[in-house]
Amino acid sequence: MALLVVAAAAWRNSALLKPTGLLGGSFNPAHGGHRSISLFAIDALGLDEVWWLVSPGNPLKSGKDMAPLAARLASAQKTARRARIRPTAIERELGTRYTVKTIEKLIRRHPERRFIWLMGADNLAEFHKWKNWRKIAGYIVIAVVARPGYDDNARTAPAMAWFRRYVRPASQSRNWTDWRPPALVFLRFRPDPRSATRIRRNTPDWHDRYQSIVLRDRVTHRRIP
Of 11, 29, 48, 181, which residue is most buried, by most CB within 10 angstroms? Predict the structure, then answer.
């Protein structure tokens, strides 16, 4: 209940806050598709910046073929260079495993920001499997970016039966800071065929190039061993 009060206060004072996109994922590895979607979201939603939440481990994915966190974060930092994108391993510091807990802690830790959750249509198709997904929707506005081959599944997903009444028009996407959650908007984006799966298949040892790199987190500014 206390967090909902904090979130409601942020909604009332949204004009004073920095609009910030959150894009979560394994980034195993990060690639140009992540960058393109983020730059598109910055423009479509009028964002100050996008944070890439490089997950220590995704509860819905197997650990097979998962590169070390430092290598995945390094690939994200390289991909995000010279853009308003900040890759971060802050979930490791927060000690969170599930998105709902990450969002709760970020809202408390960063009252100067108004967050919006960015996800691909493939994630929306599985959103009903996420822990406390309705609570997530109550905390934060969600923007769903079209992804080739997944749009139909997303619009017929179990979560959409609940979300349908909260869908906002894409033509008003830049006004999202005025929306009170739950709110969801679909954003049309040109197809991008790049994928981490394809990169791993073609270059399974991609992470070896990052073994000796010393990193500093772009959000917390802490060193990543």
Answer: 29
